[in-house]
Amino acid sequence: MSRVCQLSDLADGAARRFEVDGLPVALVRIGDDVHAIHDVCSHAEVALSDGVVWCETRQIECIRHGSAFNLVTGVPDTLPATQPVPVYAVRIVDGGVEVDVASRANDRGGARGAAGDEGGAR
Ligand code: FES
């Protein structure tokens, strides 16, 4: 687990990009829950953190073509994306947000977008 930020650093209902152990990760806060999803759409090289968060359905919608990814499973619920995006385990400890990128689900042989991505929070 890597400590990424404080829970209070994340706006409710929004996504924010971080680099966690060399990987681009979008943290999405919904109330007191935080989801971590790989910050590259599976359809093209687009940051999911630039998209729209749908709190009620726990989805993030890609800004490029509109695929809505389930924040819990990483699976796209709508086209045109058909492949899932890795999601990572998150825990909140003493107000800090910790992410385990080694826990990734939906890895398709190496998450894309790690090399050359800008680091840190935007
Ligand atoms: S780039 Fe994300 S849906 Fe096309």
Describe the structure in your own words.
The protein is an all-beta fold and 122 residues long. The protein has one domain: Rieske [2Fe-2S] iron-sulphur domain (Rieske Iron-sulfur Protein, 3-layer Sandwich). Helices cover 0% and strands 43% of the residues. The chain has no helices and nine strands. The protein has a six-stranded antiparallel β-sheet with strand order 1-9-8-4-3-2, with no helix packed on it. Strands 5-6-7 form a three-stranded antiparallel β-sheet, with no helix packed on it. A hairpin with a 2-residue loop joins strand 2 and strand 3. The protein is globular, with a radius of gyration of 13 Å. It starts with a strand and ends in a 17-residue tail after the last strand. The C terminus is likely disordered. It binds FE2/S2 (inorganic) cluster. The site of FE2/S2 (inorganic) cluster has 10 residues, from loops.
Annotation, overall tally of beta strands = 9
**Major sheet characteristics:** 6 strands, antiparallel
| Cross-sheet strand order for the largest sheet | 1-9-8-4-3-2
What is the residue-averaged pLDDT?
90
Order of helices and strands: EEEEEEEEE
- Assembly state: single chain
CATH class: Mainly Beta
Secondary-structure map with pairings?
Elements: E1 2-6, E2 14-20, E3 23-30, E4 33-38, E5 52-54, E6 59-61, E7 68-70, E8 87-93, E9 96-105
Antiparallel strand pairs: 1-9, 2-3, 3-4, 4-8, 5-6, 6-7, 8-9
The structure holds FE2/S2 (inorganic) cluster.
Main attributes?
122 residues; mainly beta; Rieske Iron-sulfur Protein; 43% strand; globular; binds FE2/S2 (inorganic) cluster
